[in-house]
Amino acid sequence: MFSRPSLPTTTVRDVADDAYLLDVREDDEWQAGHAPGAVHVPMMLIPHRIDDIPEDRDVVVVCRVGGRSAQVVAFLQQNGRDRVINLEGGMQSWAAAGKPMVSEDGGAPRVV
User: Fold this and answer.
1) Strand ranges (DSSP E) for 1-112?
2) H runs (alpha helix) in the chain
């Protein structure tokens, strides 16, 4: 009766190497570790930076475990973006799958 419409999701395994990854985590999370080539726009800045998000290709949205990114996907869909996809399990799944990561803080890349 009160179910939400399902959001498009993908698994780490199915993310293309050249995918547009939109990382919506906070600055400290990004600094600790992120996917190489990902674009960082913290969740709270998405409404102000929506025009920076491509409309002509798929955008895979990622956070730590998938909750915030799901909210961003829903927001973007409500604002006419139909090529947005939530990364199931977020960066925790990314790291667990052994996908490449880089850090900005000088330490070994990690998910915090």
Assistant:
1) 9-10, 20-23, 39-40, 59-62, 84-87
2) 27-32, 46-49, 67-78, 90-96
Tens digits of residue pLDDT in 29-72: 999 999 999 999 999 999 999 999 999 999 999 999 999 999 99
The type of residue at 77 is Q
| 76 burial level (CB within 10 Å; 0-12, 13-18, 19+) | buried
Active site residues: 63
d(CA 89, CA 53): 22
Distance CA(54)–CA(43), nearest Å, equals 16
Res 4: pLDDT:
54
Question: Distance (Å, rounded) from C-alpha 102 to C-alpha 33?
Answer: 5
